[in-house]
Amino acid sequence: MSQGGAAARKAAESQDKGWAWMVLFAAVLLQGLTLGYPSCIGVFFKDLQHEFQASNSETSWFPSIMVAVLHGGGPLCSILVKQFGCRFAVMLGGLLSSVGMVSSSFCKSISQLYITAGFITGLGSCFSFQAGITALGCYFVRWRALANAVASTGVSLGFTLWPLLSQYLLDDMGWRNTFLIFGGVLLNCCVCGAIMRPLQLASESIPQPPKPDTEPGGSAEAAQLSNGASSPHPEVQQPSRGAACFQALQKYLAFDIFCQNKGYQIYTIGVVWTMMGFTLPHLYLVPYAIQNGVEERRAALLISVIGLINIFIRPFTGLLSGHRVFTGRRIYLFSLAVLLCGLSNFICVVSAEFSVLITYCIILSVAMSGVGALTFQVLMDVVEMERFSSALGLFTILESITLLIGPPLTGLLVDITSDFHYVFYASSFFQISAALFMGISFCMLEKKNKSKEASKIPLDDSSRYQYSEVPTQPQPESQPPPAVVCTTSV
């Protein structure tokens, strides 16, 4: 047996057992360190405002940039993983996150904080999180669904522990020393990356001949991302530089799918609109509670309650939605979860008493669990798996735009009115309208598809991208994962 074949066999033996469970443990920690970290920013909101004499809008740009870069850096992370592997990307991300937070402790203005804690830490978190999820998909085949469900509990652990740790350190040391300590904590992403040793999968040892009927960015996309860029066919003329740039752009940002696939188009618009208001409660809940007389430590506990409930509800929701009963109908469950998120915000408007806010956090956490568990499952329903990574790239880029501008615009509204109630009004508006848009649009699309089938009118070639409510056969568990599959902190 060749050396490559022996390595591939050894890699196959490592999947779903042994070291794979150490990789899963590292993935849980990574999600807690990266996706869970932005949940604690609200604890520092008032201190940063006082330190830099900044308005609500100016202060909210810092966490907005962090979250936007964390979500929007997906295509850049894909390139990094392709060239250097998952372990390098995770460790580089941990180093960037640490450098960003250490530098933040020396900032003299709020604009410097945008670059250090916002951009640098956000980009590092993106590299660590998304590359870690890719490595997890390589190590698990049979138990992949369970592994992803368990890994998602890391986000909930982060939501629970980061605010409590932040408030404790802030009371004793101030925000600058706290950020300095956080730089050391985030450096543990490098340790998690060291655990994720590379695997040479069986497909890597088998040459992949080019197929003449393959579309640009089509089924060859997954092979290129997993196996690296293969040498071009000797008989095929090299494309021009402009054509190569266009193919690379389409490979990572699937504009063709967005134009042809009605289901992907509706879902992307709906989620992008949802994100305008989705993160607002996490950022402004603690300042709102403090303004209304809630003690600071109890106010920080509110975010931890959301995370604690997520630990138990999110994995259960993810596994439940994977049942065949919900196949082809997950979009309606997702819309219902978004609708519940929007409606729950009205509880804060009624009263700001601590007991009422606890009730709000419980209901919001249940709804958030549904959104977080279903976001990428629904995306897999509306897009072919061979184009999933490119569709995901465009999806996260557009999502990051609204994540960036939502909090500052709402902060400006609070500065003008001096009333935090408008935060929850705005959050409810965006989420309720998005839920109704997605639910009604997919219902109409389903009826249209059924009427076409009933009249026996052949669908054009673009219909293969359209969302269908007809239950499909579950994919075999041995199918290789997409090149980059990531989740958000939703």
UniProtKB/TrEMBL annotation:
Kindly report the protein's main subcellular placement as a broad class. membrane
What topology does the record note for this protein and the membrane?
Multi-pass membrane protein
**Which molecular-function annotation in GO is an example for this chain?**
monocarboxylic acid transmembrane transporter activity
- What parts of the sequence cross the membrane? 21-45, 61-81, 88-106, 112-133, 145-165, 177-196, 266-287, 299-319, 331-351, 357-379, 391-410, 422-445
Q: Does the keyword Chloroplast apply?
A: no
User: Region annotation Disordered: residue ranges?
Assistant: 205-238, 467-490
Query: What are the entry keywords?
Result: Membrane, Transmembrane, Transmembrane helix
Its protein name is MOT6 protein
Q: What organism is this sequence from? A: Indicator maculatus
